[in-house]
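Repro:
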Amino acid sequence: MRYFLFIALLTGLLLQNCSQYLISLEYKLNQNYIASVLCVNRDKPDMHCNGKCYLKKQLERDQQQQNNGSAGKEKYEVSYIDDLYSYDLRSYAPSIPLIAYYQSSVPYTPLSDTFRPPQA
C-alpha cells in the first residue's frame, strides 16, 4: 500500500512539472484530429496552421494556471532568533536535590563470579 501511494505521489509531482511536455505530446498524437476539428484556422488551409493555434492556446492556458496557482499562495518570512540564553529558567524550576541509588535486581553472591581455585 505504501509503495503504491509513493508511486502515485511521485507520478503526480512529475506530471505537474512536465505539463507542457504532456500538452505537446497530446498535440503530436492527435495532430490530424486537432487540425481538422479543433483548429481555428481550419477554413484557411493556405496558412498551414495544422492546429498550432490550438497548441498555442493550450500552452498559454497552462502557463496562466501555473501563474495563478503560485500567485494565490501567501509567502511568510520565517526567521530564527536564538534568544533562549537571555531567559533565566532557574527561577521557575524547583531546586530539590534528587539522590538516586542504583539497586541491582539480582542479589550479589560470591558464587556468581567465576570460580578460581587457590594457587598451591
